Amino acid sequence: MWLVFLKELKELLRDKKTLFFMIALPLLIFPLIFGGVAFVTKQAIEKAETKVLKYAMVGAEYAPVIVDHLQQPDKFELVDIGAETDYATLIRNETIDFVLIIPNSYNSDVLSAGQSTIQLYLNDAGLNLVYKRVNEIVKEQSDRFQLEAFSTLGLEASQQQALLEPIVLEKVNTADDRENWGEKIGGMLPYLLFILCLQGAMFPATDIGAGEKERGTLETLLISPIDRNKIVFGKFFTIAFAGTMTALITVVSMAGWGLVLSQGMAVKFVADFMGQIGVLDFILIFLMLVPVVAIFAAVLLSISIYAKSFKEAQSYMGPLVIFVIIPVILALLPGVELKGGWAWVPLTNVALAMKELVKGTMDYFQLIAIFGSTVLIAGALIAFCVYWFKQEKVLFR
Amino acid sequence: MIEIKNLAKKFKIENPKKLSEQEKKDPRLVGRFFHSVLDVSFKCEKGQVLGLLGPNGAGKTTTLRMLSTALKPDSGSLAINGINVLTTPLLARQKIGFLSGSTGLYGRLTGRENIEYFGQLHGLSASKTAQRIEELADLLDLHSFLDRRCENFSTGMKQKTAIARAVVHEPEVVILDEPTTGLDIMATQTVLEFIRRLKAQGTPVIFSTHHLDEVDELCDKVVVIDKGRTMFDGETAAFRALADGSLHQAFMASISQSTAQV
């Protein structure tokens, strides 16, 4: 069996595609893509924040203070649009970025004039920050009018506060930081790990099953004096190894690059959060992954050995991603907890257990049932794979 | 000695709609089953080279696959030097050197690694494997490409490496499925010379071919299979005598017998 495993591994590690998907992609390409997207996003935000916005104003005479605030040549540029009222066209043509319409009822004495509505015409599709930048100016005025009104009414600071927010609902969270962040991060962790394991195992599975059939090497292997069970297990362990390694390399790479690229606060947060998760929990998360990878490897090998060609195998394996995503998404839904029937749903139970482990709220006795049931399913699938590998109708389709 | 008696094998047709008109007319198609081999029997004695002839689809490859243990027959018996292939397939595999028609090699391994792997699968020690590789490299002229990856080999290089891989464990019988198909003249000569050496060593060789000149040059015995049945089984001289010395005519005469039977 190990002879087959080592030979498959040697071939696998000599394949550029495998090296790319298993090592280069998680170590370099993913961080480059994520880093690139973060860089471009940051540049776009900076550009939107510093861009000189061209604007027109109707009713400027009613709000001289707002006019004053807009007179910042490095931020805003007033454009004369004459009597034109088709603001949408002007904005679409990029003649202006926004139009501010001040009503004639606009008055700083809100007690007598009531609420004023200022209209802001803009194209709010995409990242432009126009609303945010104009609102900063308008909000400042709104706050000032509010304070003036309170002062006119002779209200004390505490009364002003009570008037602004008569009832405050104070949240006293009994969950600690680990539980809070564990709920968010722990839900995504199995999603990431499952998909990576599956993707990492897919190419080797295709290569050493259908690929071997297509190249004509399978028949020669089948007539060598080695038990077919050993051939199956040699191939099975290669696929499982590739899947696990891809997931591990990706997670370690993302964590490493995250620490390198993030700023001081983020590092502290990551360090604090990781510090709360014990070594035992990490080991248990990894152990939970083992039968899951075994399930993937058995299913992928069965599909691959059935397919006549590399292409056929890939077309059968594509939809598998959906079958993996659905149980993980179920684990993310509100109200789905590691209780009752959910503890027996394959993959969903492992995803839930991983979340609980990250949160630190795991009932460790339940792990035995989850691990046991997943191992049972994996074992049944491996047995099927062995049976499948002995069928002439499968091997010589 | 290789002994095959009344071998039969049928396959279930997964999708009858995909069969061609010619396949639908084949008398071996019964219901959802295609009887690829109906009744094949022959013997190959020690030191004999047996040429297995037959048109495409006659059942030659299925017969050889059953002999190599890749497929299980539905009925009949197979024996190699007295060993029952059906009841002790693992033991039989140690005795057989089989070269399939596809000549598949592991492209990302070197020629040496390909042969080594199969040597190890046959239980040879590392030193014995290395010694055998050197012997076979001399015999089949492999030295110039033995340590290169197989993915860029020419057809001739692939075939020579595949033959070396098939016989690395010094099998007691050798089965070759169309070993010279697609080879140039030089590579063909190397393969034929290798078969001659096996014969000289007393190793029985069965090889299927469409080249009657190869049969004329090498074979002691001829077996013709058509429509899943043995149509001729005898010495090459007797085969030639079927049509006044012309192998081509003799082959056509054998085939016409099967057509007449149908």
Structure notes:
The complex is a heterodimer of chains A (397) and B (262). With 397 residues, chain A is mainly α. Chain A has 18 helices and 4 strands. The radius of gyration of chain A is 31 Å and the shape is elongated. The mean pLDDT of chain A is 86. With 262 residues, chain B is an alpha/beta fold. Chain B has one domain (2-104, 172-261): P-loop containing nucleotide triphosphate hydrolases (Rossmann fold), CATH 3.40.50. Chain B has 10 helices and 11 strands. Chain B has helices at 21-25, 60-67, 89-95, 111-121, 126-140, 155-167, 185-200, 212-218, 236-241, 247-261; strands at 2-12, 29-30, 33-44, 49-53, 75-80, 83-84, 96-99, 173-177, 205-208, 221-226, 229-235. In chain B, the strands form 2 sheets. Chain B has a 6-stranded mixed β-sheet with strand order 7-8-9-4-10-11, with helices on both faces. A 5-stranded antiparallel β-sheet of chain B has the order 2-3-1-5-6. In chain B, helix 7 (185-200) links the parallel strand 8 (173-177) and strand 9 (205-208). Chain A binds chain B through residues 3, 7, 10-11, 14-15, 212, 215-227, 392-393, 395-397, and chain B through 11-12, 14, 65, 68-72, 90-91, 93-94, 96, 98, 100, 102-109, 113, 117-118, 120-123, 149, 162, 165-166.
